[in-house]
Specification:
Layout: H1 2-5, E1 7-13, E2 22-28, H2 35-48, E3 54-59, H3 75-87, E4 90-91, E5 104-108, E6 114-122, E7 129-135, E8 145-149, H4 156-164, H5 168-172, H6 177-195, E9 198-202, H7 214-230
Parallel strand pairs: 2-3
Antiparallel strand pairs: 1-2, 3-5, 4-5, 6-7, 8-9
Length: 231
Amino acid sequence: MDEELMESLWVRIKERTGKGDIVVGVCYRPPDQEEQADEALYRQIGADSHSQALVLMGDFNHPDICWKNNTAGQKQSRRFLECIDDNFPTQEIEEPTRRGALLDLILTNKEGLIGDVKVKGGLGCSDHEMVEFRILRAGSRTKSKIATLDFRRADFGLFKDMLGRVPWDKALKGRRAHKSWLIFKDHLLQAQEQSISMSRKSVKNARRPVWMNKELLAKLRNKKEAYRGWK
């Protein structure tokens, strides 16, 4: 039933060993698409986001979304962002693809799966920009690690004490907003460096943000259940 509501095509690119399969989807979402069809798409994204590697591309027609700030003006666009937040794919295109609007997206659930993303000129009579990118082999990348702040071992007493010793009235007196922010940020980062250690987290086959832990996942599930109950 869901497939009949959506203009989409899904294929699985199989790797010889079966361990590096990639699910690739192509989707077109009309600007006036009904909510029922949107929900069918979100269910499909949710299901395929749990695959080992996912690449979903297409024209989603959400011009009001600001990907930099993760905000949107329209209800349907906010619901789309909610789907993205719930399933953790990343959006890889940064430049506008049609008349100054970013309509065409590439979503992937695995870091390093997409490379060499380029927005080029139009193709034929289309008023959309052509997007070129490479899908890298899922099984050929080496294990990498990302450095993150280890808040579980942080010394928040020291952090608070260091910021508390700063004579803020004197440091910010007569400063404009931007300069004040730079001064504050400098002291904040110094305190952070001395009171919060770094840890390294593996991102091999990662499908979640590096800061996502079991506690946050539990809260996210509670949030989803509360939202479904409210609806």
